[in-house]
Structure formats: C-alpha cells, structure tokens
Amino acid sequence: MQRTLRKPAQTTQVHLCSLEATAQDALSRTVHPAVEEDPVTLCAISSISSTLVTKIKNTWQFDQKLSSIIHAEEQDPLSHPHYAWEQGILKRKGKIVVGAEVAIRDKLLQYFNSSTTGGHFGVHATYQGISAIIHWKGLHSAVRQFIKTCHTCQINKYEIMAYPGLLQPLPILEAF
Ligand SMILES: [Zn+2]
C-alpha cells in the first residue's frame, strides 16, 4: 500500500475517491482484492454502487438533524466545523454520514463484518473497518450489538479462546 495519506491532496476529488484510499487503508489487512458483487465495494465506492450512495443520501432526507446540517452547510460551509458537504456527499470528519435507517446500517455492518472484508473478527476489527469510512452516532454500540448476533463471529471468538496456541511469538530482533 503506497498511499499513506488518509485524504488525497486534491480536494476536487475528495468525494468518493477519497473513500477509496481510506477504505483500502482500513481494509488492507484483511480484504481480498476482489470484492465480488457486493454493492458496497468501497473503492469502487464510485462503486459503493451508486445505488448504495443513493440509499445513504435518502437517509439524510429523513433525518431531521442531518438535513438541517446539509441545509446550513449549503448556506455556509463553516456552519458545522466537523461536517462537510462535498459534491453532494455529507461527511463528518471525512467519513460519510449515514442517517438513522436500520436497513442500510445493517447492510453496512454486514459488509464490514463479512468474510471477505471484516473476516468475522469481532467488534474491534469490524469497528476499525467501518469507522474509517462511515459515521453515525452510536456506531460503536451498533457494531457491538451486531457482532453479538453474528453467529460466525461468536464461533470465531470461541475458537480463538480455545486455541491460544495459534498466537505467534514476536520475532526477536537481533542486534547488529
Ligand atoms: Zn461476524
């Protein structure tokens, strides 16, 4: 991964492509290069399919707080210091804001927890992945709740606990 910047230098493209870099950084430890037909494919955030972007946008319309933030940002970009309205995308501290809509939030949680992206590694890994790109208030507890209900994560947890021998010793650095 050559790109270490969390945001691209050019602000003109911040929009969806910044998500690519962020998403790849966040996921590079676990993600497989090909993310099949899942619409949330992040770089492809241009391919986080337009359908998904549209669905996320819809969540803003039905969220009173978010739609008033958008309105204020349109009038004055400095109205909410942590928020930005960039090329039709509402972001908070660089993360795409997702309004209160259970279905779409669930879909995102599923994606970031799935075997191809999150690897079903439980709360921490899933939160790391999703919070690099997505923001909503209460995201962390949503992840915790979600993981509790994920059968695969629960099984993985017990397997990890049952086989502590799988942990690898740290390499010893030799002094030259
Ligand atoms: Zn899981």
UniProtKB/TrEMBL annotation:
This is Integrase zinc-binding domain-containing protein. Transmembrane segments: none annotated. InterPro entries: Gypsy_RT_Integrase-like, Integrase_H2C2. Residues 104-158 form the Integrase zinc-binding domain. It comes from the Eukaryota.
